[in-house]
Write a structure and sequence with these properties.
By secondary structure, the protein is an alpha+beta fold. About 45% of the residues lie in helices and about 15% in strands. The protein has six helices and six strands. The strands form two sheets. A four-stranded mixed β-sheet has the order 3-4-2-6. It has a two-stranded antiparallel ribbon with strand order 1-5. Helix 2 packs across helix 3, helix 3 crosses helix 5 and helix 4 packs across helix 5. The N and C termini lie far apart (about 65 Å).
Length: about 140
């Protein structure tokens, strides 16, 4: 009897929202939840929204708006996660790229976790979009074509 297998593309689409967690690291996540429930919520927010390479480009303002926290709380909890080595923070100009430690959670094949290539998911809040549109409207002049 011939075995029918899914193509890798079909499998990728099917597992797009799948997140793997290491059992041995769940203890660290459990400790975080006991010690600092707010930081635990932030870690889960990042895991929920990260791309397949564990990264998310998002401003502190967007996180604050989404989670209904103060910006001060967001910054404080990002520092907790960074100090505990649960996340890393990369920079692209003035933009922060938050990367969840791939030894804790990941969304791609385990054998691809060692590669440095990544594409980050970008998350922009409604408030940031509206502010940027107001700035663009005042900076841009109408050009007749």
């Amino acid at each position: 009897m011939e075995q029918v297998t899914e193509s890798s593309t079909e499998s990728d689409k099917k597992n797009r929202d799948f997140v793997m967690l290491y059992r041995r690291e769940k203890a660290a996540m459990l400790d975080l939840g006991k010690q600092d429930p707010t930081a635990s919520v932030l870690l889960n927010f990042l895991i929920l929204h990260m791309d397949t390479d564990n990264c998310l480009i998002v401003s502190g303002e967007t996180i604050a708006e989404y989670l209904e926290w103060s910006l001060r709380t967001v910054r404080s909890k990002i520092k907790v996660l960074y100090d505990m080595k649960l996340i890393d923070i990369l920079k692209s100009g003035n933009t922060n790229i938050y990367c969840v430690n791939a030894n804790i959670a990941w969304t791609t094949y385990a054998n691809k976790r060692q590669y440095a290539k990544f594409q980050a998911r970008v998350m922009i809040s409604k408030t940031e979009q509206e502010a940027n549109q107001r700035i663009r409207k005042t900076r841009m002049k109408h050009i007749e074509l």
